[in-house]
Every structure is written in structure tokens, then in C-alpha cells.
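sry for the spam today, last one i promise. C-alpha cells for design, 258 residues
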């Protein structure tokens, strides 16, 4: 019984320690999140305007535009925008003591860590770690050269490189502790993965188009399921690799409790 009470006190000290750390980072984190959100916003406007030009009448670019929401890159961009809005709202509420008693705000604050851990971090690391090795090997497999007619190199880096900057910034400035159970996080990760598979495979059977040219080469062979399985394994690795980094940057729960 005494050991159990001691463990509970240790856990409370740990939580308070992480809370104090989070509070100390809050002003600089908020400023950084506003800059990151603005950068994403500007790039989205630039990409949107580029997609409105007459050159979009070309067949390849018309197909590219029609597949816009079939790219995992776009899904991840939406996740990052949603998270940054969530993070900015939470930190403004805490920093300026507004809407602190609002139940919706409280729920958003509670879900923020889960959303980052289970969705934003692994999706961002997956996109960057998959895209660039394949792009450097043969860009035509994932980002054909005709796309350069509408999306600049800077826009390409914004949606495939800058996304890593966003999550690393949050990793450093937003202290978190390793969850006692990964079950809930992994369930959300799996739901997103399966939902994406359903969307882009269904789209292929309806339109005959894959978002990535690589898939035309491997669909119908053993390499197709193997590729999807490998992607899921990378997705899992991307999720689990964040926890040693959290401990390295912010200290383990044991260190914080002490």
C-alpha cells in the first residue's frame, strides 16, 4: 500500500514537472507555431494560385490535380495545419488565461498530445523518410518532372522537408511523457493508414489512376502488398522513435520525478 502511494506521488511529481516545463516553453513555442502556420499558409496560397493557370489544361497536370486528395503528402499537410491551429489555440488560452473553464477547450488541450504523438509526428516522418530516398533514386516514381510546371522547388520542400522542421520544433518545445499504454495511439495510427489505403485503392478502381507512378509498376505483383506492408512498418517505426527522442530532450519520467 505504501509502495502504491509512493508511486502515485512520483507520478504526480512527474506530471507537475512536465507541466512546469511546458509552461516555460509556452511563449517561444507559441511564437514559433505562429511562424510555422504562416509559412504553411503562404505556401498553400502559392500552390493554389499555381494550380489556377491555363497550363493546368495539360492532360498530366489535369490528372495530377484530380488526385490532389489522394496524396498522403496532402493528408499530412492537413494534419499539420489542424495541429498548429490546435496548438496555437491551446497556448493562447493558457498564456492569456482565456476560456480556461470551457469544456471544449479542455478537451482540445487533452487531445493535443495524443494527436501529435499518434497522427502528426508519425505521418510527417513517414512522408519525409519515404519521399526523399525515392525522389533521389528516380523522381519519376513519386514526383514526375511535369509537376515542376506548377509547383516550385520551394513548394516541394515545404510539403516534403519543412514538415519535419514543424514536428522537430514541437518535439523540442512541447514536453511530453511516454504514455503508459500505446494502444489508443496505435489504434488511431492504424485507422488513418487503413483509411488512406481505402481511399487511394478505391480511386484506382474507379478512375484507373494511382497518385504515385511507382504503383503502376508494382500493382498486380507480389511487390504491391510487400510495399504496403513495408510502408506500415516504417509508419510504426516513425511512431516509436519519438519516445527515445522525448526522453533524450526532456528527460525520462524517472528523472523528472526526482
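last one done:
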Amino acid at each position: 500500500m505504501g509502495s502504491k502511494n509512493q508511486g502515485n506521488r512520483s507520478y504526480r511529481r512527474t506530471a507537475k514537472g512536465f507541466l512546469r516545463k511546458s509552461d516555460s516553453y509556452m511563449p517561444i513555442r507559441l511564437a514559433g507555431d505562429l511562424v510555422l502556420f504562416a509559412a504553411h499558409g503562404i505556401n498553400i496560397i502559392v500552390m493554389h494560385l499555381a494550380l489556377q493557370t491555363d497550363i493546368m489544361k495539360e492532360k498530366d497536370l489535369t490528372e495530377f490535380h484530380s488526385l490532389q486528395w489522394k496524396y498522403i503528402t496532402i493528408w499530412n499537410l492537413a494534419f499539420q495545419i489542424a495541429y498548429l491551429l490546435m496548438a496555437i489555440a491551446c497556448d493562447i488560452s493558457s498564456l492569456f488565461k482565456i476560456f480556461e473553464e470551457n469544456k471544449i477547450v479542455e478537451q482540445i488541450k487533452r487531445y493535443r498530445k495524443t494527436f501529435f504523438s499518434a497522427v502528426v509526428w508519425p505521418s510527417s516522418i513517414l512522408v519525409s523518410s519515404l519521399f526523399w530516398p525515392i525522389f533521389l533514386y528516380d523522381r519519376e516514381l513519386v514526383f514526375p518532372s511535369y509537376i515542376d510546371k506548377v509547383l516550385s522547388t520551394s513548394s516541394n520542400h515545404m510539403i516534403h522537408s519543412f514538415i519535419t522542421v514543424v514536428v522537430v520544433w514541437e518535439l523540442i518545445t512541447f514536453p511530453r511523457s511516454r504514455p503508459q499504454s500505446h494502444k489508443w495511439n496505435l489504434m488511431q495510427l492504424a485507422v488513418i493508414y487503413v483509411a488512406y489505403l481505402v481511399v487511394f485503392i478505391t480511386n484506382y478502381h474507379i478512375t484507373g489512376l494511382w497518385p504515385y507512378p511507382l504503383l503502376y509498376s508494382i500493382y498486380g505483383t507480389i511487390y504491391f502488398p510487400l510495399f504496403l506492408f513495408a510502408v506500415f512498418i516504417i509508419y510504426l517505426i516513425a511512431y516509436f522513435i519519438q519516445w527515445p527522442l522525448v526522453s533524450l530532450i526532456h528527460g525520462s519520467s524517472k528523472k523528472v520525478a526526482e
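Residues 2-50 form the longest helix (49 residues). ok im logging off now
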